[in-house]
Structure prediction request, 149 residues.
Amino acid sequence: MPIRAVVYASEAVAEIVADGGQTEGRLCSIIDDAARFNRDAGVTGVLLFDGERFLQYLEGPEDGLSVAYSRVMGATSHSGLVELQRGRVGRRRLPFWPMRWLPVESQELARMASADWTSFFQRGDATAPNATGMDLLQVAVQQQVAVIG
Prediction:
């Protein structure tokens, strides 16, 4: 079964910004709900949050991804959604999380949002000036996994 992916950026609503991603806050509740849904839909992904903006990467079978992304588009937790890329990927890049949110610095999220997401290509060098969005996402995830353990 082919794996598809979508990545988007959006602005958090004031309630999420004020909450700042606290463990008992609305963002954690949203992530828990998404993880339950995604697990059943066969979707995996990550939501990066800089305190004001989101960048989310989702992947999975077309039917599950389509429903999960529809839920995202209808969510009241963000606005100004800009789809950066959607398409087929050769393999899952984040097979371990039905959904997880990770804190990132504003400049890191901005660089990722403006990077090249074409075909979800990965060059393998996130330090290069022309690093792809997938290069930057992989490094952000790896850094957070190392911190979280």
About this structure: The two ends are 31 Å apart (CA to CA). The longest helix spans residues 26-41. The mean pLDDT is 91.
